[in-house]
């Protein structure tokens, strides 16, 4: 099981454009359980990397995946992406609930429930779900973000009936004991220790998020605060499960060697009998405008190379926000998307004040997003000199703007991977599922190449000037411990 979280430094070194790093969980059980969890870990990290790369890997013109969709009478939305290249399917069940939907004081409950969904039902007790998938040659896992929780299996296409039956069963028939909860609490706390508490960059990222958002629940870590994880009860988890896990709050996506008629028949058979339920709409507090720059500094004996990250909140509700999002998707790789990007050339190659630099835009959210720039100084270099140089480059960008060739280079990089996205079966359910659980539509996914291609240099520069405002920034700096 995985909570969706990654340190800015790690993210910057790999991707630009959208937040989608995955942090794997720690050891779960000994023996068979360990092997299953390690398999989930390896598969999910690889798939997480693929998602970040492939979300922008769409054709330069025309549709992306050509999905077909329908809705069952109980409200379950079903999407089918047919791909006959191999006798394999990926099934993903997305729930429109994540860490930002948790009750106050119960952070981490969405991720905790994700773990506990593998504890079994009356029909498939214990770890029978994962055992059955593995015994049939498949792989399974799950992950949690702020706006969604998703469960997936990759199996031979003739096993789709099996995994759909298993997934429908645990949508309504999960059985938990106090022992289950206590065992998995230990697993989650160990995950938090290994992935956050023992990683200074992850700790800084967690604090930076809490400072960036004043009231909005995006300020909570997906995995939860330690004290609140320790206080969660079986009753808490069961209530959360019953409040959010229902057909009308879910999206089932099947990609691969299965046509829409077969998927419809299987969905009607396994999910159709589940009764419809009316659920409360998602209501979240909104953040007030940020009126002053914020700054936090953390020191750790485990840090050897300093890190600076500058973050700016971006609004989905402001005037022109829809078009601005596409411009920001291009601005991030143009600024910090590799050795040909502006900041890398200026800070690493020409001025020699940085050893690495990157930029990313986190917009795959139901609510507002973030645009961040991160850098590390060269060996023995000064973090103060790097910060001054970085801010100077941001001012230069705002004054003179991106050049046409910089924008076109970013477009080519983002659009060039189209063939790979369409060839595989894993990209479509992840991209479409993320879109449908964060307020977007299939039409938005299919229109993405056209909208990216239509971004002008004037629009990119207008987006930069609207978002990269120093008085609305949050600067987080990670330093080695003070010398003795």
Question: Could you explain how this protein is built, in words?
Answer:
With 484 residues, this protein is an alpha+beta fold. Helices cover 44% and strands 17% of the residues. The protein has helices at 8-14, 32-54, 109-116, 128-135, 160-172, 178-197, 200-212, 226-231, 234-244, 260-270, 321-336, 342-350, 383-400, 404-415, 418-423, 427-436, 442-453, 457-467; strands at residues 2-3, 23-24, 68-71, 77-82, 88-95, 139-144, 149-156, 250-256, 294-300, 307-314, 354-362, 369-377, 473-480. An eight-stranded mixed sheet has the order 2-1-6-7-5-8-4-3, sandwiched between helices. Helix 11 crosses helix 14. The longest helix has 23 residues, at 32-54. 51% of the residues are buried.
List the helices and strands and how they pair.
Blueprint: E1 2-3, H1 8-14, E2 23-24, H2 32-54, E3 68-71, E4 77-82, E5 88-95, H3 109-116, H4 128-135, E6 139-144, E7 149-156, H5 160-172, H6 178-197, H7 200-212, H8 226-231, H9 234-244, E8 250-256, H10 260-270, E9 294-300, E10 307-314, H11 321-336, H12 342-350, E11 354-362, E12 369-377, H13 383-400, H14 404-415, H15 418-423, H16 427-436, H17 442-453, H18 457-467, E13 473-480
Parallel strand pairs: 1-6, 4-8, 9-13
Antiparallel strand pairs: 1-2, 3-4, 5-7, 5-8, 6-7, 10-12, 10-13, 11-12
Keywords:
five-stranded mixed beta sheet; alpha+beta; 484 residues; single chain; eight-stranded mixed beta sheet
Distance between the termini: 41 Å
- Multimeric organization: single chain
Structural class: alpha+beta
Helix fraction, binned, reads 40-55%
Helix count from the secondary structure assignment: 18
Q: Spans of 5+ residues with little confidence (pLDDT < 50)?
A: 4-61
What best-fitting shape do the alpha-carbon axes yield?
globular
Please indicate the percent range of residues in DSSP E strands (runs of 2 or more).
15-25%
Rg, Cα atoms, Å: 22 Å
* Total DSSP E strands: 13
Mean of pLDDT: 87
Strand order of the largest sheet: 2-1-6-7-5-8-4-3
Largest sheet: 8 strands, mixed
